[in-house]
Amino acid sequence: SDEKLDLNDSKWEDIHVITGALKMFFRELPEPLFTYNHFNDFVNAIKQEPRQRVHAVKDLIKQLPKPNQDTMQVLFRHLKRVVENGEKNRMTYQSVAIVFGPTLLKPEKETGNIAVHTVYQNQIVELILLELNSIFGR
């Protein structure tokens, strides 16, 4: 809503409230950050040979609408910082991918095996986190 938030207010001290709100924001978008029409393309990209995956994912991101690309870059840079503080927060590349994969990347209609989709969703998010500078530059 248009409500002004004071993030210094004690009710925001629980990090789970903030991360829950962030996930809910992305989950409730009318279309995922990785748009519906590119879902299968991203899945096919992650299935490629390891050396080709980064290039394929980078090319697909460039095909997304500019606001999606910009939002994705800011979000993934933030998530990378979360992982870099893993000693304090116990978040790894894999755990961040598990949390955000299905929220950011999903098919328009669930067909086939949801568990298989989840594996690919997580792998795509993890790859972007691991290869952030290759995909988005410095």
TrEMBL record:
The keyword Ligase does not apply. SUPFAM superfamilies: GTPase activation domain, GAP (SSF48350). InterPro entries: Rho-GAP (IPR050729), Rho_GTPase_activation_prot (IPR008936), RhoGAP_dom (IPR000198). Residues 1-136 form the Rho-GAP domain. It comes from the Eukaryota. It holds the Pfam family RhoGAP. Keywords: GTPase activation. GO terms for cellular component: cytoplasm. One of its GO terms (molecular function) is GTPase activator activity. GO terms for biological process: signal transduction. The keyword Ubl conjugation does not apply. This is RHG12 protein.
